[in-house]
């Protein structure tokens, strides 16, 4: 009776490269029958792909090879090559559907995904112990595996506040945004805002390195406590500035909103991003009105009523559309 072979990362890499022996392939087939092992399989596949960019893995094809090998007692039939006709739209649509299904399945295996809806915030702890508060209408993805990676990476769309712990192995945390901006830290506290109209990083404690795109090249800037950097949508650095109260940029995590000479035009964007509500201001002069103050509100309706009352404005609401007008004399 043969001794079961340990399925290691090195063995899987040989398998992906097509260099595994028949015996090794059979052992991997048996190992893959355990659902818990499939996550490790896809994690190793992800690492292999990053190291061998010319390799284009087909998860569906790989899984079918496993099944075929099992059905035929380890013998895989020779592939049959068929002439392909690009104008057969049905075949193309089926292929696209299979690729999309495989991608979603692999995405679920490789990442833990945290999301919030409009008007919702969420507190969570990453696998390394770092704490995150995710603002409304946002998404954070954390890799389930970090095989061979020298950094802890998370992927953010929206806005989140981070309190990062220092790990014994000194691995950095890298927060990557949709537009390719990266915030690199060891242990610190900061807030990242990344929406369709602008990006912003505010540092409260520690030190972070911000990497951003400028034209076709990448630049970086070091932030220190109390500094704020704003980045335009196309990753053009605007400026680094001091802020005497960096805490105000995370006030939303405590259901507070701090405005300092904030225009109604900017507040329109806040309601769209956080609550999925459209504020319409038809009067350009009114859109430039500014509001200052700290407001506590647990939802969008409360915030709207507080702002309107504080500025003596009027509003008419129809579903998720709200028209803001000047007070009548």
From TrEMBL:
Protein name per the record: FecR family protein
Pfam families registered for this protein in UniProt: FecR, FecR_C
PANTHER family recorded: PERIPLASMIC SIGNAL SENSOR AND SIGMA FACTOR ACTIVATOR FECR-RELATED (PTHR30273), PROTEIN FECR (PTHR30273:SF2)
Span of domain Protein FecR C-terminal: 256-324
Domain FecR protein: 113-209
One of the record's GO molecular function terms: sigma factor antagonist activity
Organism lineage string: Bacteria, Pseudomonadati, Bacteroidota, Cytophagia, Cytophagales
């Amino acid at each position: 009776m043969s001794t079961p072979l340990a399925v290691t990362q090195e063995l899987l890499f040989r398998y992906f490269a097509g260099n595994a022996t028949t015996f090794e392939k059979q052992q991997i087939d048996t190992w893959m029958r355990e659902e818990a092992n499939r996550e490790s399989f896809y994690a190793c596949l992800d690492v292999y792909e990053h190291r061998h960019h010319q390799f284009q893995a087909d998860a569906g094809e790989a899984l079918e090879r496993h099944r075929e090998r099992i059905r035929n007692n380890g013998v895989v039939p020779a592939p049959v090559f068929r002439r392909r006709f690009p104008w057969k739209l049905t075949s193309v649509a089926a292929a696209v559907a299979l690729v999309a299904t495989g991608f979603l399945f692999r995405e679920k295996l490789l990442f833990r995904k945290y999301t919030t809806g409009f008007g919702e915030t969420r507190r969570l702890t990453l696998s390394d112990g770092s704490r995150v508060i995710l603002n409304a209408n946002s998404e954070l993805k954390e890799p389930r595996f970090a095989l061979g990676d020298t950094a802890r990476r998370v992927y953010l769309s929206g806005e989140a506040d981070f309190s990062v712990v220092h790990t014994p192995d000194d691995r950095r945390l890298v927060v990557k945004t949709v537009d390719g901006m990266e915030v690199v830290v060891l242990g610190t506290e900061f807030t990242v805002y990344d929406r369709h109209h602008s990006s912003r990083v505010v540092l409260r404690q520690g030190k972070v390195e911000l990497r951003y795109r400028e034209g076709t090249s990448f630049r970086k800037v070091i932030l220190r406590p109390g500094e704020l950097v704003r980045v335009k949508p196309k990753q053009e650095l605007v400026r680094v500035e001091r802020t005497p109260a960096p805490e105000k940029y995370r006030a939303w995590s405590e259901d507070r909103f701090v405005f300092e000479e904030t225009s109604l035009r900017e507040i329109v964007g806040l309601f769209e991003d956080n609550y999925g509500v459209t504020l319409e201001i038809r009067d350009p002069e009114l859109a430039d009105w500014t509001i200052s103050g700290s407001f506590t509100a647990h939802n969008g309706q409360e915030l709207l009523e507080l702002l309107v009352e504080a500025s003596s404005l009027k509003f008419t609401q129809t579903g998720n559309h709200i028209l803001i007008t000047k007070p009548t004399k």
